[in-house]
Design a protein that fits this description.
Blueprint lengths: L1 H69 L10 E6 L9 E6 L3 E9 L32 E16 L10 E10 L5
Antiparallel strand pairs: 1-2, 2-4, 3-4, 4-5
């Protein structure tokens, strides 16, 4: 009987070694799946952050072109323009955006009321009409409450294309009001 007992003991140890290997392999597969999942999530996050950065940079490039347009006398001869903007002044192709800006669009002209002017402001003083000028034939000089100045309203917009032509961002619009002489048209 002794001989049978030893043989059963060896068989039990061999079965236990196989179970340990099987459990180890299952844990190894689970850990591998977790690592692969973490790598995929981090790669997706990096792509999303990169896309958000490109979108913000494209918007900033469009705003830079709009501000440049507004700082000139664009009302005299509004023209369309295409400009390149190096968003971080690095001189590298990966940071250069192409910005298309259509001609600024005049959306209307509105008379400025005398009540909207400030007599202490030197820019408002030329807009005042004297009471003696009521019948001079000058538009705005009558009793309508209008001044000798008007405000022209403009829509200045721009849309940028990312580095290496990587897609066009949404158009950015800026409304601007510019003081003009009364009777001026768009």
């Amino acid at each position: 009987m002794r001989h049978i007992h030893m043989n059963t003991s060896r068989h039990a140890r061999g079965a236990q070694r196989g179970a340990t290997l099987l459990v180890s392999m299952i844990f190894l597969v689970i850990i591998t799946l977790m690592v692969v999942s973490a790598v995929k999530v981090s790669t997706l996050n990096i792509k999303m952050v990169g896309n958000t950065q490109t979108e913000k940079e494209a918007s900033a490039a469009a705003l830079q072109v709009i501000e440049g347009t507004i700082s000139t006398d664009f009302t005299q001869l509004p023209v369309a323009a295409t400009t390149t903007v190096d968003i971080n002044n690095s001189g590298q192709a990966g940071s250069t955006y192409t910005v298309a800006s259509p001609a600024p669009l005049c959306t209307g002209v509105k008379s400025i009321k005398l009540s909207e002017l400030d007599a202490a402001n030197p820019n408002d003083q030329p807009c005042y009409a004297s009471g003696a000028a009521a019948n001079t034939g000058i538009e705005g000089a009558g009793g309508s409450g209008n001044s000798l100045c008007s405000a022209s309203n403009w829509d200045v917009s721009a849309a940028s294309t990312g580095p290496n032509g990587t897609g066009t961002g949404p158009a950015t619009h800026q409304g601007v009001s510019v003081r003009v002489a009364v009777g001026a048209a768009c």
